[in-house]
């Protein structure tokens, strides 16, 4: 991994594509852990730590997986991952959460355009998400799109979105013709800054599009009272 080159691109564009951050062998281990999590942990989760799709049976998101299962807490500690994240957040990384965006076949719902810091409410906004493709990501199964460089313009207003699992979306419409849509192989990762605008399409295919997310902030980040007040109003 060429960390200085990745850091330069991250600084300019607010998102980077890291091919094969995890090997196919590691992805197979993550798949097994996700299956075990679904079988053994999901049935006992508190309602706040799981979101279902509209069909009522398919899981849309799992939150706080690192709290419920040490295997996922451990996944955040890999040496190469820690070195990259330390560079990108500009300090010692703190895990904010391990999450899944399962985007199941046919029923996986869209994610409205948003900035993650509308939820995180941090200053400085030195936080990011490492989004790891567990499945192949295609045009049809709900890829993520990014507005590159949007992190440089700071926080934008958000309003209630009505979407379970993504309660807030950008108040202003995004020109989706300008979105950068990234197709991925299993093991590839997208790393985005918490102010980079992004969104994803619904899954209209027969193939699942599961992403496993690890969210980090720099230890120096503090709660931003203005963003917190906005969140309380909009969520
Ligand atoms: O997985 C997706 O479709 C969206 C992910 C997302 O919104 C995020 O990483 O903050």
**Total count of helical runs of at least 4 residues:** 7
Order of strands, main sheet, comes to: 1-12-7-14-4-3-2
Order of helices and strands: HEHEEHHHEEHEEEEEEEEEEH
* Beta-strand residue fraction: 25-35%
Gyration radius over CA = 17 Å
* Helix percent band: 25-40%
Name of the CATH superfamily: q2cbj1_9rhob like domain
Could you say which structural class the secondary elements and strand pairing correspond to? alpha+beta
Would you give the CATH topology? Jelly Rolls
> Sheet with the most strands?
7 strands, antiparallel
- The stretches of 5 or more residues where confidence is low (pLDDT under 50) are none
The CATH class is Mainly Beta
Bound molecules: 2-oxoglutaric acid
> Shape, please?
globular
How many domain regions? Answer: 1
> What is the end-to-end distance?
38 Å
Average pLDDT taken over every residue: 96
Any idea what the CATH architecture is?
A: Sandwich
């Amino acid at each position: 991994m060429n960390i200085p080159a990745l850091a330069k691109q991250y600084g300019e564009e607010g998102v980077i594509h890291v091919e094969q951050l995890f090997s196919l062998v590691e992805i197979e281990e993550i798949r097994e852990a996700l299956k075990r999590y679904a079988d053994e942990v999901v049935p006992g989760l508190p309602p706040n730590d799981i979101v279902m799709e509209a069909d009522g049976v398919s899981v849309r998101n799992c939150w706080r997986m690192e709290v419920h299962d040490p295997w996922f807490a451990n996944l955040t500690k890999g040496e190469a991952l820690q070195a990259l994240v330390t560079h990108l957040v500009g300090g010692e990384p703190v895990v904010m959460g391990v999450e899944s965006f399962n985007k199941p076949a046919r029923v996986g719902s869209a994610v409205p355009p948003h900035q993650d810091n509308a939820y995180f409410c941090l200053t400085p906004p030195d936080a990011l998400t490492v989004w790891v493709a567990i499945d192949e990501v295609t045009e049809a199964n709900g890829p993520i799109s990014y507005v590159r460089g949007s992190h440089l313009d700071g926080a934008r207003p958000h309003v209630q979105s009505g979407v379970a699992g993504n309660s807030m979306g950008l108040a202003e419409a995004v020109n989706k013709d300008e979105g950068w849509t990234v197709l991925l192989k299993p093991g590839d990762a997208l790393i985005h800054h918490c102010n980079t605008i992004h969104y994803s399409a619904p899954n209209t295919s027969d193939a699942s599009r599961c992403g496993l997310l690890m969210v980090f902030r720099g230890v120096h980040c503090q709660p931003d009272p203005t963003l917190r007040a906005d969140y309380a109003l909009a969520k």
